[in-house]
Amino acid sequence: MRRDQKSFAFGGKARKFDDAGKSNLFLAIVPERDVALRAAEIGSDVSQRHGLSKGPRPQALMHVSLNAIGKYADFPEDVVVAVSAAMATVKAAPFEVMFDRVMHFASANAVALGNAVRSEEMMDLHVQLAKEMWAVGLTFSYNPRFMPHMTLFYDEAPVPEQMLADPVSWIAREFVLIRSFIGKSEHEYIDRWPLLD
Questions:
Q1: At what angle do helices 120-135 and 77-87 cross, to 10 degrees?
Q2: Cα separation, 130 vs 133, whole angstroms
Q3: CA separation (Å) from 54 to 49, 61, 186?
Q4: Per-residue pLDDT tens over the stretch 54-63
Q5: pTM listed for this prediction
Q6: What is the side-by-side strand order in the sheet with 64-72?
Q7: CB burial class (10 A; 0-12, 13-18, 19+) of residue 55?
Q8: Contact 195, 173 (CB under 8 A)
């Protein structure tokens, strides 16, 4: 199983990302509060058990990234309006998100919850979001090896993969547009769209 997460163009040329910015915009699925709290507890347990200095990210920051949009020095109101209009056309049903193990993504120095079997529903949503952004000329990301995961914390130490006795799971009923403030451990929810049957 590959654990490198790179972005690829989808059906044409993707616009280049602005690497210099004060915040990131991305689309994601956010777990229910009790699920996020459990993820933080798992992260704390893993960190302590392996004697790592990094603790888990706050439960309020737990999420599963779907598609990156870009980095911006200021709030890109025009981009947000365009993304919101494009996402309003997405059609997808609610689906189960399930992670059964703790994994280390060496390329990102991330310790995360993951699964050896990729969620086809989440992959379909990842592809559909990329198509909708591409169709209106927005920055988009598409990764044919997209492997959904929820980052617990970042650390260079190669934490060994371990199975969870009780998998972390919930039903995803919406996806959200998040603005992440770089270096501040702060997320702002800009917009959200329901997943409907």
A1: 120
A2: 5
A3: 12, 15, 17
A4: 788 899 999 9
A5: 0.85
A6: 64-72, 23-29, 174-181, 186-194
A7: middle
A8: yes
